[in-house]
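Input chain follows. Return structure tokens only.
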Amino acid sequence: MTESVLNPISISQYKRVLTSSNNNGYGGANVFRNLTTTIGSGHHGTSVLNRIIMSLQSGLDSEVSWALSYMTQVSCTEPLSIELEVLPYLGTELIKYFVKPFQLIIENKAKDVTHKQLALSLDSLLTLRNLAQDLGNQQWLSQVKTLKKSIVEVLKFFIHWFYQPYKRDFCMVQFDNLFREGFAYLIDLLEPLSCYYIDNSKTDPLFAQLLLTATLTNDKFLLVNILNCLSHLLIIKDGFNSSPEENKTEYNETEDSTPKDIKVLNNVIDTIQESHLQKFVELLLVNDDELTTAVFGFLKQYLLSEAPHPQYSNSIKKSQQARLRKLLQLSSTKSNFSILAKQLPLILLSSLPLSDPNNISKMPPTFLSKRSQYISVPNTVPTLPADLFNVIVRLPEPLRATTWLRCCYEPIYDFNVKTIDPNVIPGEVTQISLWKAYEKQFEDVWQDKEKVNPEWLPLLPALEFIRNVNAAFPNSEVMQITVDSPGQPPKKKFIIKGIQPRQFAVGIDDGNYEAFRHFSDSTTQQGLESGESLPVGHVDMQKFNINLNKVNDSLAANGTQVTENDVSPLNQSAFDLLDLMITNVLETEDNVEDLEAIFKLHNSHWLPELIYANPCLVDIGLVKGSWFRYLL
């Protein structure tokens, strides 16, 4: 069991302690003397420690007040100088004066509580809280059974006071600030002591009150300490008579690991409901490291506890899997699964010196290799699929005309190629054929004389349609050329240069992208001239691999190298929980398509690129290669 380190008291609280001490004739400088220092100026007398004991034994208000205040000072500056195991009388007196005013309140004698009693109670509570920093004092206090019972009663009062104000006794409103101060001290005291309260049953009142407080409070510091207390209270003794190594082996390798000697069959862990778990998981959205650490500590203790589940009392592994399903809400809303699937990868990679994916050199554009010196231009315009037609036909003009053109025609930048049909010129269409194709595609619109479908607006007039072609394809050009025919006078021909019919209609996004995509002459020529010997339907993989290797070499040479020393406990905890989710749910559960879709929804748009830009994450084991199947 590690030693608990608590936060020091505030300056205002310390001034109150010093003022109380000075009023009784003992200066604050005494705090810094050793308890063996004698009292008096040049005259030997009893030690300070004996002076404190005698003051408490006297029962005189002024002496008791001095003794309690002085011990508060000492516990703040020299907490190791008071050993309760050696002087249990001091511990008993501190507990007595801490409980005294609250006992009156519980007995419905709130009117008898005075400000001085509460001040002494807070002095005693603060002293206990500070002394609990020492491991020996923790052990002594944890063995005082009446202390735990008293803490539960005081905690109940604080819950009623702060979260059920309609139950307040208004004669105590004047003590509200003191109660608030005492509430914080009490939770601080519980954090180290809760480590010793193990094997708690379902009816454990302390766990119930802390769980209730955690669902009611929005105070960050209270939440952090309460989550730590709850984590401690989930601790159980070894469920087996065998050694921990044997337990671990049996759990990892055996499907049904049956405990030999289960001591806790009715454990407090199963009083935790989905609503409690959802409250704690939602705290991960706050993006606070201290709060996140406390939540992770609780979740790991909850998921890895070897306390048997009531439905799987003979299998620790199945008990843990049942609690994992409960945490992720797989049988209900899956809200917790969605939050964890979103937040765990973010926390996993937070605060690491990672390379920005936006700074990676882009892959060169990939072109299909030229198959032949001849090309084939479709003689007819493709017809829109029904679903695409139903979208485009409802668009207003000229957006409908622009969208249709981009879906059914493609831009052409290279005109120095031959065609299979000598009568077809690549990258040229006549204006009349373009208009007729558009008119035929939306024949139902202009033939609908009675306006059967009022959502279909009239077609764009022919002249405006031709003028709109250049807006749809910026590279196109409306031209008038003269065609010479043997034995006949020259004829004028109205064409549009820079576009041609597609082989198949494409979607709106693809059409819009290609309409504004521009290739330089050198890049286009390089793409067309490479790979002429490749069979039809193949890509120049050699060129592709060369380009890919260039990018990979650049990443390996210039990318940031994350080492294991850069991984914080927060990163490691996020990895442990995420790996637990993927290993025990996504890789083992049946019909997890919806869960995979949730995981992909939150991470596929950023995580693969970040991992690709930082391959060191896979090298140090912070990211598993098997996770990519849920990202791509």
